[in-house]
Amino acid sequence: MATYTAPPKESTRLAAPDNVRHDAYWIAPAATIATFLIFIVYSTIRAFQGKYFATHFEQYHFAWAAQSLLNVGAIQPHYWSPFYSPYIPLHWNFPIVNFPISASLYVLVFPLSFRGSCYYCRKAYYRAIFQDPGACAVKEALVKKNYTGEKKFPFNLVNFHRYTLYAAIILVFFHWHHMYDSFFYTKVGEGEHFGVGFGTLLFTLDTILLSAYTFSCHSFRHLVGGIVNRFSSSSGSKVRYGLWDKVTKLNNYHGQFFWASLITVGLTDLYVCLVSSGIITDLRFF
Q: Dihedral sign, CA of 231, 235, 240, 244?
């Protein structure tokens, strides 16, 4: 005889039992918080700094700002910080308080919204920051009586992730452009030359990892192979299935690409800042 076992409509979620884990499960959430905090603090400082984001700035036909940002006579490759790409005029005055706003604040909103709404990133900060829960078989820090998931504000905003993907793809192309520029430098009086410096290697690594992170995204996987229940036997569907299959394999490493690209984009910006400010000289191999 069948028995109805569904909970009544008025029931609420019960508190989880006391933790049954006694291992050092907290190490991963703690490392996640530390990494997030370091990146947030650094990117905020750089965002409001508004300078030291390019070498040989005059090559981009903005000579009016070159003298105040870098040594025009220096022999340096063309490096451009990913935090300031694509370029927007250095300072626009806010229409209400007339406060100078750094160009990077207009740029960072797109990659940060893409990362912040990323499926992997959600898992990371739900566990590490909200302790919701901190790990499997670990009690939640705060038991919610009416669990709504991501249906209500502000958590429903993360559902725009699929749209932030389009902006991220555009930014990836800018990264490839700046990586190409990093292979050429201008020597005063001798014109442009091909060359490879340490910054070139950083730009190359960052661009590859950022591309892997972007195109291993769950939303991109859905974009190339979603919506349909099955692939037909047509040639177009075979191509689509092949692309979906490759993205699926890449998607298995989406979390690793998230952290690796987060670290390299920060290191690349830091290196550009140190070189363009004159603190260090670019190590050039040839």
A: positive
What one-letter code names the amino acid at 270? L
The CA distances from residue 246 to 109, 121, 128, 156, in Å, are 29, 22, 31, 30
Strand partners, 101: 92
Exposed, middle or buried: residue 2 (CB in 10 Å: 0-12, 13-18, 19+)? exposed
Instruction: Tell me the CA distances in angstroms from 124 to 26, 114, 275, one per residue in order.
Output: 12, 14, 33
pLDDT tens figures, 57-86: 444 333 333 333 334 334 455 888 998 887
Q: Which amino acid is at 97?
A: V
Question: 135, 126, 122, 147: which is closest to 219 by C-alpha?
Answer: 122
Instruction: State the Cα–Cα distance between residues 271 and 263, nearest whole angstrom.
Output: 12
3-state SS assignment for residue 225 = helix
Residue 121 backbone zone (phi > 0: left; psi -120 to 50: alpha; other: beta): alpha
Q: What's the whole-model pTM score?
A: 0.77
